[in-house]
Amino acid sequence: MTTVADPPALRSRTPLRRRTRGPRRWYRLISPLALLVLWETAARTGVLPEEKVPAPSLVAQTGWRLATEGQLSEHLLDSLTRAAVGLLIGGTLAVALAATAALLRIGDNAIDPPVQMARMLPHLGLVPLLIIWVGIGEELKISLVALGSFFPLYFNTYAGIRDIDQRLVEAAKTCGLNQWERLRHVVLPGALPSLFLGLRLAIGAGWLSLVVGEQVNAQTGIGFLMMEAREFAQTDVVVFGLLVYAALGLLSDTLIRIAERRTLAWRRGLQAT
């Protein structure tokens, strides 16, 4: 009995990716590190006024002081809670409404036109109206995060479902799959790539909304910490707060990308060279 060997290209493809994936991860750190070095040099040499743009080393010292004093953990926990609750509310509504609009004709006629109209309004410009509606407490911050995360997730989920090839659905019906099985085995896998993209965009919009929300009558949170520092011209604290927001956004996006990679392991996309 003879066996047929795999072509050389197929044999070497996976090991090559395993060998190169590790170093490429480190390559992504080159540009941020270079930017930090350039920033530090410009601040130390006086190109950037230190009272306006403090050096990264000074910002790091400030962050360490806030962490050791316990202020950072308290404000960070409150910001994370607001972001998580707002994203949960906005994301749940977005996916539910998008699925209803994409799968049902009556849902499309009833839901999509108002959403299309509402997306033309800048949600951050609705702050004065939201203050009248929900007050200036926690509800305002959570509402802003929910609004910011709703639209990216809604439109990407809607587009992901509508982009599924109708022939796949008809083939599943021919094979005897009922409606629930077609949703599970055809619609959901086909819409997942767009849903993950929408989730990444929604998280970014949610953090941006939280930055604004925590500057409106907040008593805790990273935004409150920045506003309080502004009153005393503590630019190092303000810059540190911005870096915390950026780090939280990057961490959230990285976690979503990891989940996407594992969930969509069956999907072979274009690889960067």
UniProtKB/TrEMBL annotation:
SUPFAM superfamilies: MetI-like. It is a multi-pass membrane protein. It is found in: Cell membrane. Residues 76-256 form the ABC transmembrane type-1 domain. The chain crosses the membrane at residues 83-106, 118-136, 142-161, 186-212, 232-252. GO terms for biological process: alkanesulfonate transmembrane transport. One of its GO terms (cellular component) is plasma membrane. Gene3D superfamilies: MetI-like. CDD domains: TM_PBP2. Its main location: membrane. Keywords: Cell membrane, Membrane, Transmembrane, Transmembrane helix, Transport. Belongs to the binding-protein-dependent transport system permease family. This is Sulfonate transport system permease protein. It comes from Actinoplanes campanulatus.
